[in-house]
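Supplementary Methods. Inverse-folding protocol.

Structures were first reduced to a discrete structure-token string of length 82. This string, shown here, constituted the complete conditioning input.
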């Protein structure tokens, strides 16, 4: 069956999988942006300028992400350590 055409139903599944992956990325981006906005607002309420607060929020999120990925082989702690 080398060179046999791909059935339409199978093609549809591949297209759907690609679409769902894009939706997942968009959802993740929206969630991260929401976290950054909330943290930025909190830091502004504590007296930081808007630009400094946004930069700090990004730095903290990056630090948490970096820490999580570098310790990904560790078992889940079940709670926050910070």
């Amino acid at each position: 069956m080398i060179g046999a055409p791909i059935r339409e139903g199978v093609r549809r599944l591949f297209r759907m999988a690609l679409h769902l992956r894009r939706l997942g990325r968009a959802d993740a981006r929206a969630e991260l942006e929401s976290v950054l906005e909330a943290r930025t607002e909190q830091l502004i309420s504590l007296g930081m300028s808007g630009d400094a607060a946004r930069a700090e929020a990004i730095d903290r999120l990056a630090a948490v992400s970096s820490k999580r990925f570098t310790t990904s082989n560790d078992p889940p702690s079940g709670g926050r350590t910070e």
